Amino acid sequence: MKIDSIQNGIVLDHIKAGNSMKIYQYLALDKLDCPVALIKNVKSTKMGKKDIIKIDSLIDINLDILGYLDAGITVNIIKDGVLKEKRRLELPEKLINVLRCKNPRCITTVEHSLDSVFNLVDRSKGIYRCEYCEAEGN
Amino acid sequence: MRHLINITDLSVAEIEELIATAQDIIQNGKKYAEVCKGKKIATLFFEPSTRTRLSFEAAMLELGGSVIGFSSAESSSAAKGETVTDTVRTVACYADIIAMRHPKEGAPLAASKVSPVPIINAGDGGHNHPTQTLADLFTIYREKGRLENFTIGFCGDLKFGRTVHSLITALSRYRNINFFFISPEELRIPDYIKEDTLWKNKLPYIEVERLEDVMPQLDILYMTRVQKERFFNEADYVRLKDSYILEPSKLANAKKDLSVLHPLPRVNEISHLVDSDPRACYFKQVLNGKYMRMALILKLLNLEVDS
């Protein structure tokens, strides 16, 4: 299977196999009108299998969401057909309006005008807690 | 702008400062009688409370200030669908400081993000109740003369008991405290308290099911009510509510200087026969709570009294 290389755009590499559709939805890539290629189950020496997303445009990517979903992803920025920048991700300290609190007693479940804020409390385990009620986010 | 949402919003040094102020209020009450003259506290209680609301109101009145507010959501604009943040923005136009109780967890934090006056969390669902913790700490301090080097047992509803969570968090910052958690399996301390507070600070704790097994080792026994409103299911409440009742016979093998605390109100978890035991401290706790709330109001309003 052959997908053409891109001239100006973004390649999300090293996505855990099977996660690309979730990332496609969280980043709202369906709203773009440029070509987007979603490649699943690519052979990888490091990961065995991986997914790749190629976006044929230099759009702003929400790296916080991406870091939360899969901190192992590499973001490659391509300009004029050349790899200009390789960004590694990490779990963001704060997630704003990414997760919704599932604790029925939390104020955010009834007052929807409030930003939903989750703070990273344990980086090694990737645990986030709601800023309001401290319930674990997932 | 300082608020008190979680007990950890106050440093250990600030808690010591509040204790010193509260002690001075007890000894020299007259000099505080007009310090809040012209100031108003709004007590916004979106769910019922006798003790906490009256404690805040009494605290402000004894400081020479005045009180406005409501005592249930039905008697406020919340009944018309007004948001907490709108209510607080409005009330802040009338009051210098706000004490808020709300059934939803995190409501006081949401309020503090928009309020131009200090917000005090007077209890948010099963989450936090920092001024009760101030009352508990002051009571321990007055009874034991210290806030370190003791063994404390928490008994009853440790899962939903917000006063328990706040007090454990507060005590985690002091040295050499041993914790016993006495509860049925269904009402044990939540994992996040264990992970974020006990494990992280390497604090020793033991979970047991029977109060009698640990009574002789305790310096402080913190009893709690199994609260009906914290259960989704009435059958679970009925099954568990009588599990842990303190009666005089259970105190027979306790230390002579044990201090029995309870955030009140009680239902039947402490027999009235225990009230006359000198180790019962729960009504002293109520009074101590008023003094600590007075000290807190002064601190958040940046008011000082000449010594």
Task: Tell me about this structure.
The complex is a heterodimer of chains A (138) and B (307). With 138 residues, chain A is mainly beta. Chain A has two domains: 80 residues, Alpha-Beta Plaits, CATH 3.30.70.140; 44 residues, Aspartate carbamoyltransferase regulatory subunit, C-terminal domain (SH3 type barrels). Chain A has two helices and eight strands. In chain A, the strands form two sheets. Chain A has a five-stranded antiparallel beta sheet with strand order 2-3-1-4-5, with helices on one face. Chain A has a three-stranded antiparallel beta sheet with strand order 6-7-8, covered by helices on one side. Helix content of chain B is 33%, strand content 15%. The two termini of chain B are 25 Å apart. The mean pLDDT of chain B is 92. At the A-B interface, loops of A face α4 and α7 of B.
CATH superfamily membership of the largest domain in chain A, which one?
Aspartate carbamoyltransferase regulatory subunit, N-terminal domain
What is the name of the CATH architecture of the largest domain in chain A? 2-Layer Sandwich
Show unreliable segments of chain A.
none
Biggest β-sheet: strands ordered side by side in the sheet of chain A:
2-3-1-4-5
- Assign a percent range to the helix content of chain B: 25-40%
Q: Radius of gyration of chain B, rounded?
A: 19 Å
**Count of domain modules of chain A:** 2
**What integer value in Å does the Rg of chain A equal?**
17 Å
Order of helices and strands of chain B: HEHEHEHEHEHEHEEHEH
Oligomer: heterodimer
Shape of chain A: elongated
Distance between the termini of chain B: 25 Å
Class of the largest domain in chain A in CATH?
A: Alpha Beta
Number of helices of chain B: 9
Count of strand segments of chain B? 9
Largest interface between protein chains, with number of residues from each side: A-B, 20 and 18 residues
**Structure annotation, total helices of chain A:** 2
Q: From the helix content, strand content and strand pairing of chain A, which structural class follows?
A: mainly beta
